[in-house]
Specification:
The chain is built from no helices and eleven strands. By secondary structure, the protein is mostly beta strands.
Length: 119
């Protein structure tokens, strides 16, 4: 059995400038085909527009308010919203609230810098 507490994993910046805590991934667990991370954007911050060549993502908003942009479309998002991001779709997320925007990022296959292309 493997249990990883988010408070016991380090923080790092992804290629798109999000601050994340990788909770479960091939780099730190027995998981081989996907990754789960918690991302935080401070008020006014947004990620750099990017796409993933082979990875599809799911964002799940835990706290805060944001605006998501995916391949020319945009929407407001908040707590409880799940966002599907297919591979090769340009996207970014912006924190439009007064507090931190906190969301889970589920990637399959697992997140890598090499699969991320900045726009």
């Amino acid at each position: 059995m493997e249990i990883v507490n988010r408070g016991k994993v380090g923080v790092f910046k992804t290629k798109d400038t999000a601050e994340i805590r990788e909770i479960l991934a091939p780099r730190n667990s027995a998981i081989k085909n996907q990754s789960l991370a918690e991302a935080t954007l401070i008020p006014g911050q947004c990620t750099v527009e990017h796409l993933h060549l082979g990875t599809e993502e799911i964002y799940y908003i835990l706290k805060g308010r944001g605006r998501i942009f995916i391949d020319g479309e945009e929407a407001l998002v908040g707590k409880g919203d799940g966002i599907a991001i297919p591979s090769r779709k340009k996207h970014l997320i912006a924190n439009i609230g007064k507090g931190n925007l906190v969301f889970l990022c589920c990637c399959s296959p697992a997140y890598t810098h090499e699969d991320t292309v900045l726009i």
